[in-house]
Amino acid sequence: KQEVTQIPAALSVPEGENLVLNCSFTDSAIYNLQWFRQDPGKGLTSLLLIQSSQREQTSGRLNASLDKSSGRSTLYIAASQPGDSATYLCAVEAPAAGNKLTFGGGTRVLVKP
Amino acid sequence: KAGVTQTPRYLIKTRGQQVTLSCSPISGHRSVSWYQQTPGQGLQFLFEYFSETQRNKGNFPGRFSGRQFSNSRSEMNVSTLELGDSALYLCASSPDRVEKLFFGSGTQLSVL
Question: Which of A47, B2, B49, B52 has the smallest count of CB within 10 Å of its CB?
Fold first, then answer.
């Protein structure tokens, strides 16, 4: 059974510092991994999608890496801003899970001005 | 392009009642999936529909059901509501599997 873990559950950094968010998964046979952002009481916004054949994806200040063999992904956010404060979730889509997304518990990020 | 639209935004029901939630996907998206989000269990998959067929189902009791119409709009129904059904219900759409998911803002259901 695929399990996705995100540690730490919460993170606080001063504005301008780089953010490093971790995601680990137990079954390396995945189709893809997605990173999402969620603001309080709102839906999820997809940030980056990494296909299983890819090692990383970049969008603006965001960069996500994927290491299937070790079951890990890392989301880097450069030069954090207060507007980056949100909960960040990773999710994997895998054949063993019937192609449904399995989510981690999320990391709640606070960027202090 | 309009995003994923979920209605209603908030619902308050009492135990034993039933509820229907609606989701309109992004135009052209044929896959619609539903998730339940609670503080204790996080995000859990309910089911996925593609071209009016349920393609995948999560581990929820039969009180949770859904359907998809020919225009890809989807509804989910929860019968005989229990207190533990209080949650944010999220709908997501995509053109097909293995593609980026686009989520709606959710329906916040409170069961009293």
Answer: B2
* Token pair listed for B34: 């539903």
End-to-end CA distance of chain A: 41
* Residue in A51, A54, A62, A100 to test binding to B, most B beta-carbons within 10 Å: A100
Alpha helices (runs of H) in A1-113, residue ranges in sequence order: none
**Tell me: the pLDDT tens digits for B57-77?**
999 999 999 999 999 999 999
Kind of pairing between the strands at B87-94 and B107-111: antiparallel
Q: Using one digit for the tens of pLDDT, what is the confidence trace for B18-36?
A: 999 999 999 999 999 999 9
Cβ–Cβ contact B4 with A under 8 A: yes
In sequence order, what are the residues at sequence separation of 6 or more whose Cβ sits closer than 8 angstroms to the Cβ of residue A66? A33, A50, A52, A54, A55, A56, A72, A73
